[in-house]
Amino acid sequence: MDNLKSAFQKVFGSTDLARLFFAPGRINLIGEHTDYNGGHVFPAAISYGTYALAKKRSDKQLRFYSMNFEQDGIHTSSLDDLDYKEEDGWSNFPKGMIQALIKDGYTIDAGMDILFYGNIPNAAGLSSSASIELVTGVMLEGLFELDIDRIRMVQLGQQVENNYIGVNSGIMDQFAVGMGRKNHAMLLDCDTLEYQYAPIVLQDHDIIIIHTNKSRTLAGSKYNERRAQCEQALADLQKTLDITSLGQLTVEKFDAHCEQISDPIHRKRAKHAVYENARTLEALEKLQQNDLVAFGQLMNASHESLQQDYEVTGIELDTIVEAAWKQPGVLGARMTGAGFGGCAIAIVEKNQVANFEEQVNAIYRERIGYDATFYLAAIGDGAKEITEDTQSAK
Ligand code: GLA
User: Fold this and answer.
1) Ligand 1: which atom is nearest the Cα of residue 338?
2) Which residue is closest in CA terms to ligand 1's atom 11?
3) CA–CA separation, 122 vs 128, rounded Å?
4) pLDDT of residue 216
5) Residue 318 CB: number of other CB atoms within 10 A?
6) CA-CA distance, 14 to 7, in Å (whole number)?
7) Which atom in ligand 1 lies closest to the alpha carbon of residue 125?
8) Which of 10, 34, 60, 275 has the smallest set of CB atoms within 10 Å of its CB?
C-alpha cells in the first residue's frame, strides 16, 4: 500500500481521496477448454492479482499509469474518446471496461487518475487480463457508487475481451476473478451460469503453480482454431441430436454418436470437451468426499486428454507435468488455462514441496534449457475494494 501511494504521489500528485482496489488472477483446477463449449469449469482465485489506486478528477481526462510498464509513462485518454487504439497498449483494458459500463447504462461522469500494479507472473496464463478488467470494474463501482450485479460485471469483462481486445475467450477467467472466494473453488456451468462454491480442503497438501516461462499470447495462439473445430463438431452432431452445446452431451451419448463428426481431428477435439466436462463434475464429487487421490487422478487424465485429443500442451508443459507425476507426494498435476505454454499446477504434499521443486526443475532445465518458476497458490477472494478494515482483518 505504501509503495503504491508513494508511486501515485510521484506520478499524479496527492493521494487524498484515492481508493485502493484489487482483483486476483486465477488457476483452473479442472475443466479446461470446456467453457466456450457450454461445459463446466472448476477454477479458483489466487492471491496474486492487480491493484488499482485511483481517484476521480474534475475534468473528463483519464490518466493511466502502471508500475509494471514504467517505460510507457502515463497513457492519457478521455471519457469522450474510449475506442480501442493500438498505441494505447495495456491501457486499452481499463478503457474498454469503462466504455463497456457506460454502454451498459452506468453513469461515469468524471475522469480519473489510476495507478496499477500487478504481481501475477508475466505471461503466465493466470488471467492477468481478466484481472485488470475486473479491478477496473470494482473501481468504477466504488468511485461512482454504482450498483452493479457481479455476474453482469463478469459478463462485461468477457465482452471487453471478445469485442474490444479481440480475444475469443470464454467466461471462466472473468468469472473466477470476479466471483472468487477465499479457500474455495467454484464449479460453474458455463451454459446456464449456475454455480456453487466448494471448499478446498487439501489436508497436508499445497497447490503449486509451475510457470514454464514460455510466454504465450492467446490471440496469437491456436485458441480460436480449437474453438472453431468444436463448433464444426457440434454442427455435425446437430444433424441428428437436439443440442446447443457439446457440454449437454454425456460421455455415453457422445460415444454413440461421435461417428457423425466427419473430420477425425474435430472428433478428437469434441471428445476432449465432453469427457473433460464429465471429469470436472466427478472432480467436485471427489473433493466433497475428501477423496484427494481420485481428484488427483482426474487432474492427470485431464492433462492427457489436453495433450492427446485437444493438443494444446506442448513440450514445456508436458515436461513439467510428466516430471511432476513421478515425484513422491504428488496427487496430481496438469496444465492450467489455455495451454501452449503458461503454467501447470500440481497438488503436492507439504513436506515434499522443496524436493518436488528441485527435482522437477532439474528435469525441466535439462530438457528445455532454462528454469521453471514455482509459486505456492493461496486461494483468495474475488475482486474487491481494499480498505484499512479489510487489510487489518487479514
Ligand atoms: C483461457 C480462456 C478461458 C478458457 C481457458 C481454457 O484461459 O480465457 O475462457 O477457455 O483458456 O480452459
Assistant:
1) 11
2) 338
3) 8
4) 67
5) 18
6) 10
7) 7
8) 10
Domain ranges of the chain: 2-200+379-386, 205-376
Kindly state if the Cβ of 32 falls inside 6 Å of ligand 1: yes
Task: Summarize pLDDT for 28-80 with one digit per residue, the tens.
Answer: 999 999 999 999 999 999 999 999 999 999 999 999 999 999 999 999 999 99
CATH number of 2-200+379-386: 3.30.230.10
337 lines ligand 1 (CB under 6 A): yes
Please answer whether residues 226 and 340 qualify as being in contact, where contact means their C-beta atoms are separated by less than 8 angstroms: no
Confidence band of 391 (pLDDT split at 50, 70, 90): low
Give yes or no for a contact between 20 and 261, defined as CB atoms under 8 angstroms apart: no
> Which numbered atom of ligand 1 lies nearest the CA of 130?
8
Same fold, 2-200+379-386 and 205-376: no
What is the residue type of 112?
M
**Are the C-beta atoms of 341 and 214 separated by less than 8 Å?**
yes
276 lines ligand 1 (CB under 6 A): no
Rounded to the nearest whole angstrom, what is the distance from the C-alpha of residue 210 to the centroid of ligand 1?
18
pTM: 0.96
Cβ–Cβ under 8 Å, residues 87 and 71: no
List strand residue ranges (DSSP E) for 152-193, in order: 184-189
User: Is residue 123 very low, low, confident or very high in pLDDT (cuts 50, 70, 90)?
Assistant: confident
Superfamily covering domain 205-376: GHMP kinase, C-terminal domain (3.30.70.890)
Could you give the residue numbers annotated as active site?
173
pLDDT score for 389: 72
Sheet hosting strand 373-376, strand order edge to edge: 330-336, 343-349, 205-211, 373-376
Q: Residue 54: which of 175, 133, 134, 136 has the closest Cα?
A: 136
Does residue 115 carry a pLDDT above 50? yes
Taking only Cα atoms into account, the Rg of the chain, rounded to an integer number of angstroms, comes to: 21
